[in-house]
Amino acid sequence: MSDTNLKELISAVAARQAEFADLIVALAPDLSSQAILPTDLALELSTALHDLEERATGHDPLYRLVNDHTAPALALNESGQVVALNVGAAQLFDMQSGDGLVTLGISPEAFHQFKERLASTQGPTLLKAYRKGSDEHTLPLILVGMYQQKLKTFVLNALQQHWPESIDLAFADVFGLSASERHILALLSRGCSSEEIAEERGSSVATVRQQIKSLLQKLGAKSQVQAATMAASAATAMDTVKAKGDLLSAHYDDYPMSIHEVVRDHRRIGWRRFGRPGGQPVLLLHGPSFGAGDFPDERRLASQFGLDVIAVERAGYGRTEPSDKSEDPLESQCHDILAVLGSLSISRVTILSHEVALIPALALLKQPGIAINGIVSVSAAPPFKELEQINAMPAHQAIFIQAARHAPWLARLMVRLLILRMRKLGPEQWPKVIFEGVEPDEHIIRKNSLRQGVIAAYGFYINQLGAGYLEDLRIMIQDWGHLLDAPNLPLTLIHGDCNASTPVPHLSIFRGINPDLTIELVEGEGLTLAVSQTERLYKALATMANASGNRLAREHG
């Protein structure tokens, strides 16, 4: 195919006027030979994709949710993680997509109460937030929040002059304001003086002043002007609210996930925590398909089995910045993980790894300062020793590995197109880029019970425009087979017998390197068993962690 036709085809695929499979067919001859597209064409194609990405952003439903507002606005998923925000919110809170409640100065308890109000009262409600560095005497920033059922997202924007009944009730709930105090606050917002308020209410000026003093204390305001400004700000925000919001289900998620970060060598490393605090420490190393604790069942089962799960956002995913190109990507990921565990004083863990994350899980065995009870690996692919392994994969998955084996710029091009398609598909449909036409995975990932996790994971994967996929490709194409030779370590590979990405016969490569590892095949499952067989996985983790604990107790008994 000529360069011109190829460029036109890429534009058509990005615009969903042609199928991704058409592009794979067009590129296949070049990817299966030594002849590669010239670098100057790569530059042209990358420029074209950048323009398309800019346009695609405007079609992103989450992007539209917050950019329809003139006031600072942001969207949180049901775990309290920021999945989208406009420029105003980014500047106001000095934050970015992927941050959690702590960046907003919102406690888990306050967020839980916020969700309870949305579950019991139709209409928007309030939430107090604080800028970074605020202390207990700082005037809070008040956000008006609604729930969007379709995207399972909370939309918050800066409270700006009048408020409906639901907001009035929220002032009572959040700040403990009495009906009299709320009436006085409304009069203050109109610019009324103490004398005018006393006349309006038929009270003495002394009584009104005492009520105003109480009102200021409850609001955390230092003056009547601050209180009036806070109240008067409601109208502008409410005017920007285009929809009245949905009633949150009474069965909203009761298994929260906290969001944190550490800094290593001037790089931000994001991590999450869920399950039972103080339980058996589990290190979750996510793959490129199922988020990092984004599915509610993971959090529920972690708590049920007494597991304290630390999910490190690997390089290029979520908020963790990619490693420096001069660094070995695998070594860098190990140091990131150790930085997180070190900040928590955790020195012994059991590991759950998804897909490609088996590689950094094994690489940790070579690192000092950490003891590993064992590894439960889900849907891992063995080292790519034979080209047949890649050719056996679904073409729309194999194309990325084929591209990475040829040239880094070609891999970047394919990943950018992948992210563009994910944006086009949106938060509910993005898994099609991985599972479309692949059974049983396509059927499983479409289940309504997984919808919340699918939507929550969307921002996690597009946040850095595919940098995480590129990091994974860098470590996948290396020869990492020697890492599998791990003596005296329980290593269990759990694999679906219908996994189209890694057919069962290819698992013999694992056994050829390490005959002592355990392979458990799950009948009728594919790549998606990470979310369809969650209970099995967490039960295996608990069993492995407890067995290690009992063994250590005997040794030190």
From TrEMBL:
InterPro entries: AB_hydrolase_fold (IPR029058), Sig_transdc_resp-reg_C-effctor (IPR016032), Tscrpt_reg_LuxR_C (IPR000792), WalR-like (IPR039420), WH-like_DNA-bd_sf (IPR036388). PANTHER family: TWO-COMPONENT RESPONSE REGULATOR. The keyword DNA-binding applies. Keywords: DNA-binding. SUPFAM superfamilies: alpha/beta-Hydrolases, C-terminal effector domain of the bipartite response regulators. It comes from Marinobacter alkaliphilus. Residues 170-235 form the HTH luxR-type domain. The keyword Membrane does not apply. This is LuxR C-terminal-related transcriptional regulator.
